[in-house]
Amino acid sequence: MRPTALGAAIVFAMTVSTDLASQAGLDTVQIRTQRLTDNVYVLQGAGGNIGLAVGDDAVFVVDDQFAPLTPKILAAIAALTPRPVRFVVNTHWHFDHTGGNENMGKAGALLVAHENVRKRMSTEQFIEAINRREPPSPPGALPVVTFTESVTFHVNGDDLIVTHVPPAHTDGDAMVYFSKANVLHMGDLFVSAGLPFVDRSSGGSIHGVIGAAERALVLANGATKVIPGHGPVTDRARLEVWRAMLVALRDRMQKEVAAGRTIEEVLAAKITEPYAKDWPGGHERFVRALYQELARR
Asked: Is residue 2 scored above 70 in pLDDT?
């Protein structure tokens, strides 16, 4: 917990990441910090939104974006507290949420995730929807502590409840609820500015995405601040609209499939167009994944 520990972590991360940042085009990315409560923040840069809780007990981080950004992320944290990062929880395995794991682990953080996150990071993965192959992660990037259903961290005077949900965005998704702060980090179970990415290659399912939203709505109230995997921090009301939209689109797709429509015919029908203004991203990818799942193709 010494102030010098965080400084050493930043120096370490800068050493391993500077060249990579230039190569990946991330050297110009800036980390933006938004305060949500007295000790809970969200950090935004490139990749998934980072949740952050600081206090006398520990610095607790949810997701860590890309490895080249670790020095900037640690610098943003250092502007808030001299304490080192003690825990990093991954909401799922995707590279834009776990890319900083190895750096964070080497700097002293304990890496925690659902057991399927470790399994997928341990072997080569192929994400069909974006035609991307991911090699196994180095041993130092793998979660050290895994769970199956849930795990609770009792730190900084709060109860941070990490809960796995049935296959949704992937098969290893978890949401993190900061109980007393009343902040809910949903990872990519929720995208506040677009339609969801249902990664069927990683065990994802539209039914699970809807179920996760329903579970989150039970946890949240009108004052809850909801951190999405991508997009601006929002609230329960927008999450409720998201859930209703997904149910409507799932029901519409079931009718299209029952009528024998091809994917080309469904795309031409532009069934997501009514939501394009309020939820502008990811439409074609979502329609294709929805069709594949409901038509079992």
From this structure: no
